[in-house]
Amino acid sequence: xxxxxxxxxxxxxxxxxxxxxxxxxxxxxxxxxxxxxxxxxxxxxxxxxxxxxxxxxxxxxxxxxxxxxxxxxxxxxxxxxxxxxxxxxxxxxxxxxxxxxxxxxxxxxxxxxxxxxxxxxxxxxxxxxxxxxxxxxxxxxxxxxxxxxxxxxxxxxxxxxxxxxxxxxxxxxxxxxxxxxxxxxxxxxxxxxxxxxxxxxxxxxxxxxxxxxxxxxxxxxxxxxxxxxxxxxxxxxxxxxxxxxxxxxxxxxxxxxxxxxxxxxxxxxxxxxxxxxxxxxxxxxxxxxxxxxxxxxxxxxxxxxxxxxxxxxxxxxxxxxxxxxxxxxxxxxxxxxxxxxxxxxxxxxxxxxxxxxxxxxxxxxxxxxxxxxxxxxxxxxxxxxxxxxxxxxxxxxxxxxxxxxxxxxxxxxxxxxxxxxxxxxxxxxxxxx
Length: 433
Ligand SMILES: [Ca+2]
Ligand SMILES: [Ca+2]
Ligand SMILES: [Zn+2]
Description:
By secondary structure, the protein is α/β, with parallel strands linked by helices. The protein is 19% helix and 21% strand. The protein starts with a helix and ends with a strand.
């Protein structure tokens, strides 16, 4: 039934000469969730439980403060045609976009309307291509797999789960508790020479169900899948002209938001449905790849004010060049999800091991320390020495001074501290007494 509909509607659109964009689905995360619920009853409830748990975990409960969480990423490029084998420069650009958006360093953040500025959220999440693969081998964090499949679109599900399986012509994920796996592939509807993008991306929200037994996943494994033309803001083959939005890499920003637990800002329903986030105004439907800042489709009260629809939000379907913000509530949720459900991504992760190859041996003495500690390194170092307390809060920063730096700690409270020079020396711990 579904097959008939897809093919028939594709031909209809084609014959009618309508804009290709009108058939494009911006995000199929909800479809993914419904599909998975069918084969694994209880799945959707499980994602709700995770959402509620993350939401109830106010920042600070786990003493993680607002430290930057660094998530290692592996990008799996699975290609048939040459243009699907996107260049490294496109991947680097997409990582840049993610980092700017999740640190609110995006240049277009200035376009957010003034009434929303008090709610703008900085997630302090950083994405880095992995430096080491699951076997500890140095890697670029990019895999490239040539496939005989001209498209990964599955007519039954409307998804592209086969891309997550080597046996099915894609590539198996890397350890999903340690890496954010992003597959980039073609999941367009391909019939002969006709090619029609259907879904731009989808993601798996966190859930707390037990893992699937080995070999039985049929794909459906954790991560993000992206149509290759919307990866990066410098994509050499962006979606064809006529699409009502500019490709700016925000499909990935949106999908990673789902991966970190966020829902669509309109709550996937009318005004009676909402996204579970207190500081996002509700909307009665998604935007249509546009940027209508005058609409106020639902009456609600955020700090007593009925705000208009927040079309600048990454979790809407507004135009990519309209989007420029998460809210503080969304940020709190995403960080709660990391702390509750995706902690192995950011905690003591060998996949990350930023510059592990260049790490310089160091020692710290005396320990316990009283008035000062000395950081001694086997090679001369510069850069900032950062001291954090047991909660990860930065309490002091001093400039490193060659082979030996004496650090005054007389002003610190008694307790446990950690010293790092990011990417240069491994964290050293000491006690102040
Ligand atoms: Ca809301
Ligand atoms: Ca409103
Ligand atoms: Zn979505």
